[in-house]
Automatic annotation (TrEMBL):
One of its GO terms (cellular component) is photoreceptor inner segment. It comes from Chinchilla lanigera (Long-tailed chinchilla). GO terms for molecular function: alpha-tubulin binding; beta-tubulin binding; dynactin binding; protein-macromolecule adaptor activity; RNA polymerase II-specific DNA-binding transcription factor binding. Its main location: membrane. Belongs to the BBS4 family. Residues 433-511 are annotated as: Disordered. The lineage of its organism: Eukaryota, Metazoa, Chordata, Craniata, Vertebrata. It is found in: Cell projection, Cilium membrane; Cell projection, Cilium, Flagellum; Cytoplasm, Cytoskeleton, Microtubule organizing center, Centrosome, Centriolar satellite. GO terms for biological process: adult behavior; B cell homeostasis; brain morphogenesis; centrosome cycle; cerebral cortex development; dendrite development; erythrocyte homeostasis; face development. Keywords: Cell membrane, Cell projection, Cilium, Cilium biogenesis/degradation, Cytoplasm, Cytoskeleton, Flagellum, Membrane, Protein transport, Repeat, TPR repeat, Transport. This is BBSome complex member BBS4. TPR repeats lie at residues 160-193, 194-227, 296-329. PANTHER family: BARDET-BIEDL SYNDROME 4 PROTEIN, PTHR44186. Transmembrane segments: none annotated. Gene3D superfamilies: Tetratricopeptide repeat domain (1.25.40.10).
């Protein structure tokens, strides 16, 4: 027998134990797993255990707990926890960004800027910091600084959201052309982004460039056939051109996606108004008014429909409410004066006409209706002054643009001119054909006035602000290491208006 020495077994290598993780970090993987699965209750239980074992010194556990608190709406508590993380790791840029974001959500924009600047000193090549600084400056109405920061962000990393915020700043400044240039660059960079196409189409629609508007809205619907904002905008364009049945077909699709949309029901109501189905129009407009009781455009339309139905008391109710929300629009005072005239309140009607003439410097119909009222009251001299003012406006409109005037307005002006014995100075020598898409509010006895229903492009303001709330997270690397969830680029609230000057210019169609 061959015998092996006993000492041979002792020469086998012994197995080494795996190194134990430090106690501060041993449950981080479980916290991360529960967080990304959105199992927040289990995550908070593990965080509580981890903080108890580490005596509150586990930075990652505190960080994730702060994220969960912010998701639950406890912004102030999350801010305090993020500040604790910043104390535990003062050189961490991500901790500072989260502190600044919580300050931004609390409305403390100046404090957020200070923290973002401190983070920028630690990392000057972070596009997210530049982007968020631009958003903070925008809320402080420091638009030039905001543009500088956003341009710096685009140089570091081109992102759709940065383009959208830059375009929004130009719209807030009232510079639609620069906003269009920004959105065109954004579409070139991201040609499949439906929000960008929709916003660009709406801007072209605002300028009256219908061909390009159709092109971009069509592109948006090509990539996303269920994009209700693009469908609503396309329907409003068809409604503007009098295709009410086609527009209603589009609106049926939108109603499935957003059944509680005030602009949708407003547009549907004005489609029925164009089809002379006034009871259905009032029903839809009242639903829109229920959903948005402070929207002056809906109140305007309700007043207009009631005027058409010769329900002057109801018209006065809605028009006076619209005047309270939009006190600087002359046409509202003119329609209010029409209702007061038919309610036989002549003195207040004169005051309303005088205010309308003071506010509206380009609509000749205001002066024509005012002149008719003054003539019927026997004040021929004052009526002649208003008639001459109307002639000046008509001459200016003829010289500056090729507008068509409504035949009823021309006929009434001719009759009034003959009655005032100024027939040799009439600005019209023959009636003009009535445009197809016009709607009149003239009663059987008195010329109430020509008004284009405010329903054609009601989707514009809503879609513009919705397009500004497009969300995109910063691109992350494909590493396998456990990392903190990134902070998000700042965005404005979706209820923010896109442009302060779009109230009357976007919606009204000139006649």
């Amino acid at each position: 027998r061959t015998q092996f020495p006993a000492a041979a077994e002792s020469q086998k290598p012994s197995k080494k134990k795996a190194p134990e993780c430090p106690i501060l970090e041993k449950l981080n993987w479980l916290i991360h797993l529960h967080y990304i699965r959105k199992d927040y209750e289990a995550c908070k239980a593990v965080i509580k255990e981890q903080l108890r074992e580490t005596q509150g010194l586990c930075e990652y556990a505190i960080y994730v707990q702060a994220l969960i608190l912010r998701l639950e709406g406890n912004i102030q508590e999350s801010l305090e926890l993020f500040q604790t993380c910043a104390i535990l790791s003062p050189q961490s840029v991500d901790n500072l960004k989260q502190v600044a974001r919580s300050l931004f959500l609390l409305g403390k924009h100046k404090a957020a800027i200070e923290v973002y600047n401190e983070a920028a000193r630690l990392n000057r090549k972070d596009w997210e910091i530049c982007h968020n600084l631009g958003v903070c400056y925008m809320y402080l109405k420091q638009f030039h600084k905001a543009q500088d920061q956003l341009h710096s962000a685009l140089q570091l990393n081109r992102q759709d959201l940065t383009y959208i915020m830059l375009g929004k700043i130009h719209l807030l400044e009232g510079d639609v052309d620069k906003a269009i240039e920004i959105y065109k660059k954004a579409v070139e960079f991201s040609p499949e982004n439906t929000e960008l196409h929709t916003t660009l189409g709406l801007l072209y629609l605002q300028l009256g460039v219908y061909q390009k508007a159709f092109e971009h809205l069509g592109n948006a619907l090509t990539y996303d056939p269920t994009n209700y904002k693009a469908i609503l905008a396309a329907g409003s364009m068809m409604q503007t051109h009098g295709d009410f049945d086609v527009a209603l077909t589009k609106y049926r699709v939108v109603a499935c996606a957003v059944p509680e949309s005030p602009p949708l029901w407003n547009n549907i109501g004005m489609c029925f108004f164009g089809k002379k189905k006034y009871v259905a129009a009032i029903s839809c407009l009242k639903r829109a008014n229920y959903l948005a009781p402070f929207d002056w455009k809906i109140l305007y339309n309700l007043g207009l429909v009631h005027l058409t139905m010769q329900q002057y008391a109801s018209a006065f109710h809605f028009l006076s409410a619209a005047v309270n929300f939009q006190p600087k629009m002359g046409e509202l005072y003119m329609l209010l004066a029409v209702a007061l005239t038919n309610l036989e309140d002549t003195e207040n009607a004169k005051k309303a006409y005088a205010e309308a003439a003071r506010l509206d410097k380009c609509n000749p119909l205001v002066n024509l209706n005012y002149a008719v009222l003054l003539y019927n009251q026997g004040e021929k001299r004052a009526a002649l002054a208003q008639y001459q003012e109307m002639e000046k406006k008509v001459t200016f409109l003829r010289d500056s643009s090729s507008l068509e005037f409504d035949s009823e307005m021309v006929e009434m002006a001719q009759k009034l001119g003959a009655a005032l014995q100024v027939a040799e100075a009439l600005v019209w020598t023959k009636p003009v054909k009535d445009p197809k898409a016009k709607h009149r509010t003239t009663s059987a006895s008195k010329p109430a006035g020509l008004q284009q229903p405010l329903g054609s492009n009601q989707a514009l303001g809503q879609a513009m602000s919705s397009a500004a709330s497009y969300r995109k997270l910063p691109a992350g690397g494909g590493t396998t290491q456990l990392t903190k969830p990134p902070s998000l680029p700042l965005e404005p609230e979706p209820t923010e208006e896109a442009s302060p000057a779009e109230a009357s210019e976007q919606i009204r169609e000139q006649w």
